[in-house]
Request: fold
Amino acid sequence: MSAWEDIGARLAAGEASLLGLWGEPGRVHLAVLEPSPQPPPPSPQPPPAGGGGEQSPLPLREGVGGGEGSPPTIRHFAFDCPDGHYPSLARVHSPALRLERTLRDLYGLIPEGLPDPRPWIAHGPTPTAYEFLPVEGEGLHQTPVGPVHAGIIEPGHFRFTCDGETVVRLEQRLGYTHKGIEALLAGAEIAVAARIAARSCGDSTVAYSLAFARAVEEATGAAPPPRAVWLRALAAELERLANHLGDIGGVCNDASFALMQAHCAMLRERVLRAANACFGHRLMMDFVMPGGVSRDLPEAAPALLLDLVSQLRSGFPPLVRLYDGTASLQDRTNGTGILSADLARQFAAGGYVGRASGRDFDARRDLGYAPYDQLAFVVPVRAEGDVNARVWVRIDEIAASLGLIEQILDRVPDGPLAVALPPRAGEGLALVEGFRGDVLAWVRMDAGRVARAHLRDPSWFQWPLLEAAAKGNIVADFPLCNKSFNCAYSGTDL
Amino acid sequence: MFRTLLQGLRPPATEPAVADPELAALGAALDGAVRKRLGRSLSIRAVDAGSCNGCELEMHALNNAFYDLDRFGLRFVASPRHADVLMVTGPVTRHMREALVRTYAAMPAPKWVVAVGDCGAGCGVFAQSPACVGSVAQVLPVDLTIPGCPPPPAKLLAGLLALLSDR
Reply:
């Protein structure tokens, strides 16, 4: 059994989690997360001499994560397939399915044995021509929704098949915001590439910039100064706060409980205004740069942020009580859109989606990247897996982020903000906990330019679970399910 | 709940809108056409034609109590059939072009198009991408452009008010 198929078997058996699957012409990359204690890595085998059609199984190198002690390990494999064919992992591990369909669309890499031959990212000349999965049964009807949705929201298509009011199947079709991000990144100068990475997914711009910067720094051997590392975490926690506040209000609004939305939106606005005052941009775009950060905090920033923390500490708990004490709202969120713990684990669902279904993983804690290795915070985990659990994970994460902001402000060291990047060639991989889950970034650097890069959004492994969670719910509860997942479109459309 | 309701009433969070001279000048180019036809009531349909979601977040913020879009007679509507203004974000992707054109076609005349953000204005950092067909103006007749990456809500508001200006 080749090492490639061996890792597929381990993924299928649940001994490892799929972190990412990406490509470039003639090569497939795979990143997996392995729990500790780490099983011995498969011994590298020499590539077969002849080759035509033969697979060359070679785990090229291990990525970041180390192997010492308890943290889980990220392992990175590269699989050379000069003829463009590789054995499909989705045959045995369905979380790889959309990724493999994407690799075929973008790079012409053919997964042998792929269970679903339809394109994913590429829509072809006629976007409306797409074969949805057949559904048969008496009295079933279909509701097509999108790509243009009713709200101010990203585009995507949802095809509901319903029995009366009950959803019996939801099938998603995405790719509408495909902007060719990987093609733009290939060969880009580092400053240009950083701006593109920051705009892969606007709500997670800090997380994307941070993942990209850390990958570039690993590739070039640059060490960002301590002050930059701490300021990055400050921005990341503010981003988490703003998004969680927006989401909690949004979920309640989708249950027509506008009061929560009105108040949460005000708190969110206060966070964004504080971000603007401290980082010069409401969403903090382009603050995190490879090598460090792009600017220092103004003198007033610590007081301003501490004031924000105290406003949230006094303003948010009454809203939590309102949420928890309103029976009509609880009736909508409890028991709705249940995601099973098995699926969350199988898909390695990140963020609140995984943590609300018992998957106890947080890249900040489990990989312990700086400065989180020096900070104390609680990672909330719930077992119910419903909309309410996903709301509560966010509520508890808001409390954790407020504590983190205080700790960071207390301990952020003085010093330089950035280092120059050595024009070294190399590869780097980083995993960063965004508000939605873990963002993976991989880059190959070549003389000050990005040769290749891949940014994997957490929603790759959350979107398919939304299809599962919506099943058996009434159509009117879908907005609640959807908002409680709040998956990224732009981030996964690449 | 009633305490929370009352709390929201005072002090009012809503702030006066500040006109943006540049956008006001752009709006003046429309020569009061919008105002003449529709008075002070505008229904807006938003279409993300490939944005990163940044512009959408700031357009959402227009509905919060600080900006309170509704007080100007401006509101986001769910269907293009109800809309007077189409706000378009993003570098128009090949995959969204058809949906964007159809949405515009579904709007009753008279209608206006506002291109939002640096991407809507000129594709932003995605200008070189073969997956994008171009700025909004290359697909639809654009009446007003509100640049920014993303434009903050105050600027979005100033732009929409410029549409409603007398001259």
Remarks:
- Residues 242 and 268 of chain A are 5 Å apart (CA to CA).
- The mean pLDDT of chain A is 91.
- The longest strand of chain A covers residues 438-446.
